[in-house]
Design a protein that fits this description.
The structure holds two protein chains of two kinds. Chain A is mostly helical. Chain A has helices at about 1-40, 50-60, 60-95, 95-105, 115-125, 130-135, 150-175, 180-185, 190-200, 205-220, 225-230, 235-245, 250-280. In chain A, helix 2 (about 50-60) crosses helix 13, helix 3 (about 60-95) packs parallel to helix 7 (about 150-175) and helix 8 (about 180-185) packs antiparallel against helix 9. Chain B is about 40% helix and about 15% strand. In chain B, strands 1, 2, 3, 4, 5, 6, 7, 8 and 9 form a nine-stranded mixed β-sheet that branches. By secondary structure, chain B is α/β, with parallel strands linked by helices. The chains are: A mainly alpha, B alpha/beta.
Amino acid sequence: MTGSRREGALGLLLVLPPLLVLVFLIILPAITAVVDTLTPPAGAAPGPTLAHYSQVLATRVVRSDIGFSIVVTVISVAAVFCLSYPLALYLRFNQGRLPGLLAILFTIPLFVPVVIASFAMITFLVNHGLVSTILYRLGVQRFPPLMYNATGIVLTEVWASLPFAVLILGAGLQAIDDALIDSARDVGAGRLRTFVSIILPLNTTPTMITLTLLFISIFGSFTIPYLVGGNAPQMLGVTMTNYLTQYFRREDAVTMAVIAFAIASVVGAVYVISVSRRERGVL
Amino acid sequence: MAAGIALAVFLAGFGNTGQVGAQQPVTLNLYINGDTNIFDLWQKGFIPAFTKRYPKYKINFVGLLHGNGGDGVYDKILAAKRAGRTVDVDLWETEPGFVDQGIPQNLWLKLNSTLVPNLAKVPVSTLEAVDYYGMPYRGSSVVIGYNSQYVKTAPKTFDDLVAWIKANPGKFTYCDPNTGGSGQAFATAALYRFVDPAKYAGKAYDPKEEAAWEPGWKLMKDLQPAMYNNGFHPNGNVAVLQLLAQQNIWMAAVWSDMGLDFYTRGQLPKTMRFTQITPPLIGDDSRVTIPAGGAHLEGTLTLLNWLLTPEAQTMVTDMVAGYPGIDWKYMPASVREKFKDVAKGYSPYPNPKYLADIKRLWHEKVAAGQ
């Protein structure tokens, strides 16, 4: 039918701009980058080689930066998750002024640029900052530095990512039918039982989406680790930028980018599987 | 790049419409790289004073904050050159990289003291360093800033400095060399302690020469536990000044102009002092470069000559605490007195390739301690 064909053409036209952006700004450069990293250096035998990878991975600093990035990301994601789930539950199952106010309060970090958030955290947590002054007044004289190290990065990432996690988890919780929860309560399930047996399984897909997107965004972040991180180890975003702009080692930077991409794509695969499961109506 | 040039040709075509009549003021287009203090130096210092003295000229000031947009300016000049047109960039203060790139393309005007009579007052070495393709009008170097309330005897040599750091753990630091010249200065000083600086300052580059840096790296690594916060190096020159301001540290490597400027504004303790050690830390001159295809060369040369007068050079020393472009002996005695502790020349920067390696190796060997 011509009508459906026209609709198809219109649909194609509408998706074309984002598709072109995706192809020319993401997919093609990514392929070029991978090919670049497999190209042997001048003077070496032709044919694809993993020399760049072995060279980059032979650098201990880079290895420790990769490990550091993964550890910091996993801890941040876990902390965000543990803080955001109870909050999302609270906002879902409570009505009234206080939950409404909290719902607004917790979205504030979404509208604060990370640069400003990072500097705010620095003044807040640095030696002689507010937190250390309060701790000192309370008689805590010795405590580990809270800024310019992994602690600083985790705290800032958690602050910045919390609203996003609450929103996605909350949206998932909204979709759970009240009738299911009520019936569970009717047959005598307590709060914990309702949560473990009804809410958690029904909210699996949004949970997976939250975890994977959090992982990828924190793993690839630059601004926060650049501003609040220490000198070493550093997160990969900062390391790559240094190799590219400070050390003039473009190939090393690209190789690290491909390694980072490989790590993120493992997590990305989990995301794609979760989403397609939901679309197939499995959950 | 090609697309950029094409676009710039297109834009340049619209840039110079109409001839400027003899009676009309001539507008000079200045493109200045720098931080806001340098913008103030031009907009509140140089430009009003120059246009007052030479009412024939008007100035169109374009500030390139931290060098942003430099690529576009370069493409514009190159495109105009290729198209055989004049360009509406009359003067550009930029990084040595762009100047080097443009020399084979004949983009710049080679200066001499016939074109700019006051050039005779500029130390020859600073002109030769860029083959007369740029005019140094201000300079600065890294110096040692110390709080005289706690530091009774200022270090005179690099070895004195190292001894002081060891004797006063936690009271000294320098910024991460990736993030500021003051950190690069401390790192190069430690390396230069064991090698001949001239070998690394020239254009030649051979990574094998870097083996001689090992004792320097070891020295810095051994100093790490004696640094502020057990080896913390903040990001950027300003962050170090803030540590000095909060009296978290008592001594640090700082840029002469930034340190004196902070001090003058009352942002550092009254007891802060600045001194240069022997051999001196690295420093450099800031230069202005003149596109050969500039549309108003006569006016630009008038401006250049005026920039080297004591009137303009005193603005450099007063407004941004910079070193003058002309020899110190042409400066008023009061200015020479103010700078006597810091103005002792400076060591050369390593060339950009060695500098890149210094930053990388510093991270590997000092920060990561491997």
